[in-house]
Amino acid sequence: MIYYYLTLLFVFTFVLVQADVKTNYTTTKTDPSKISIPDIPQTTSNDVATECAYYNSEYTVNPAEWPTIWDIATSNNMNTSQEFQDLYNSIDWASAPNIAVRKASATGGLDMTGYDTVNDPDCWWSSSQCTKPKHQGCNADIVNCPEPGTWGLTFDDGPNCSHNAFYEFLQQNNQQASMFYIGSNVLNWPYGALRGVKDGHHIAGHTWSHKMMTTLSNQEVLAELYYTAKAIKYVTGITPLYWRPALGDIDDRVRWVASQLGFTAILWNLDTDDWAAGTTPGVTPQTVDQNYQNFITMGSNGSFVNSGNIVLSHEINNMTMDFAIQHYPAIKNAYKHIVDVATCMNISHPYVEQVITFPNFDQKVNENASTATGSGVVPGASQLPGAATSVSAMPSIILIGILFMTIAFVMI
Ligand SMILES: [Zn+2]
């Protein structure tokens, strides 16, 4: 019986050590609950040229320690760094789903030749918009806010250097959103990322280089996720447990790798197509306005009486941010609530760091305006995040470990 106990102790310790490797991303100078941003023209101006002038910050980047900006995150020999090797070797790759790396098509899309698109065995979103994994060990995607009459507000591709006026608008409206930040942008525009955390937005990852994730190897997928989280942690002091794949390109192989880090994907069920206006044939600003209008109509025509949505939009440039500003009053009229995804999913701790707590949905919609701003620290909320894997499930792992050991003692 003592061997049984020792085995349990060993396994329990091993789990703790494993989780520790994955949570110790980097050191940071930032206390995410006490962020201050210097008053420089780049952080205060609403003129794009002024905002987007390069600046030096205290968040210096030693190029040897990071992937090349905008290249796949294994670049600059990051795949051979000790830090990445340790992470890679901590994962039981033998348990990974046996799914092929996809190929990009000649036109820059995805080549689905040979894939069983009818049965969609790998829950490949790009093929079928599947979000419920079919393989073991994968966190299911979040795809809509469950609360009726609720607009899940999300913006991809930040932090954008020209977002001051947009973030000002959100702040004035006491409005939080889920912001999906690209790792390369975070290192380029650290004060932009800090503003997102300071304003109480829900920050999530959006990969390092914005490639289609199913076309990357396991090692590349891991590096894209890891170094994005590391960049966000380095600058803002928080490590996001949620992320969004570029173009929604995710399958069970990518989900499994993300799940090893304790990450859960947030997709969407309504797409404004805002980024495409003027750059994609057939998509004009009027097209995007009509998309917004259709989604607004859905707020009052019964489409969302039983559940809410998650809407994909972008902070990629002033045009996309302006679409959101222009339509915001009408969205507010048509929907009962507009919230970030952490709040609508009752995810009180969307980051590894427990110092930031998000209100649950009921708290958020009932709280008065004066308590809704600031660092996002709201006392009283204690619900665990939805991702039930190594990092986010740590308190559960500890409890289960203690329970097992107690049982073992009783049996001895
Ligand atoms: Zn994107």
UniProtKB/TrEMBL annotation:
<protein>
    <recommendedName>
        <fullName>chitin deacetylase</fullName>
        <ecNumber>3.5.1.41</ecNumber>
    </recommendedName>
</protein>
<keyword id="KW-0170">Cobalt</keyword>
<keyword id="KW-0961">Cell wall biogenesis/degradation</keyword>
<keyword id="KW-0336">GPI-anchor</keyword>
<dbReference type="GO" id="GO:0006032">
    <property type="term" value="P:chitin catabolic process"/>
</dbReference>
<keyword id="KW-0812">Transmembrane</keyword>
<dbReference type="GO" id="GO:0071555">
    <property type="term" value="P:cell wall organization"/>
</dbReference>
<dbReference type="GO" id="GO:0098552">
    <property type="term" value="C:side of membrane"/>
</dbReference>
<dbReference type="GO" id="GO:0004099">
    <property type="term" value="F:chitin deacetylase activity"/>
</dbReference>
<keyword id="KW-1133">Transmembrane helix</keyword>
<keyword id="KW-0325">Glycoprotein</keyword>
<dbReference type="InterPro" id="IPR050248">
    <property type="entry name" value="Polysacc_deacetylase_ArnD"/>
</dbReference>
<comment type="similarity">
    <text>Belongs to the polysaccharide deacetylase family.</text>
</comment>
<dbReference type="InterPro" id="IPR011330">
    <property type="entry name" value="Glyco_hydro/deAcase_b/a-brl"/>
</dbReference>
<keyword id="KW-0624">Polysaccharide degradation</keyword>
<dbReference type="GO" id="GO:0009272">
    <property type="term" value="P:fungal-type cell wall biogenesis"/>
</dbReference>
<keyword id="KW-0378">Hydrolase</keyword>
<keyword id="KW-0732">Signal</keyword>
<dbReference type="GO" id="GO:0000272">
    <property type="term" value="P:polysaccharide catabolic process"/>
</dbReference>
<keyword id="KW-1003">Cell membrane</keyword>
<keyword id="KW-0479">Metal-binding</keyword>
<keyword id="KW-0134">Cell wall</keyword>
<keyword id="KW-0146">Chitin degradation</keyword>
<feature type="domain" description="NodB homology">
    <location>
        <begin position="149"/>
        <end position="344"/>
    </location>
</feature>
<keyword id="KW-0964">Secreted</keyword>
<dbReference type="InterPro" id="IPR002509">
    <property type="entry name" value="NODB_dom"/>
</dbReference>
<dbReference type="GO" id="GO:0046872">
    <property type="term" value="F:metal ion binding"/>
</dbReference>
<keyword id="KW-0472">Membrane</keyword>
<feature type="transmembrane region" description="Helical">
    <location>
        <begin position="393"/>
        <end position="411"/>
    </location>
</feature>
<dbReference type="GO" id="GO:0005886">
    <property type="term" value="C:plasma membrane"/>
</dbReference>
<keyword id="KW-0119">Carbohydrate metabolism</keyword>
<feature type="signal peptide">
    <location>
        <begin position="1"/>
        <end position="19"/>
    </location>
</feature>
<dbReference type="Pfam" id="PF01522">
    <property type="entry name" value="Polysacc_deac_1"/>
</dbReference>
<keyword id="KW-0449">Lipoprotein</keyword>
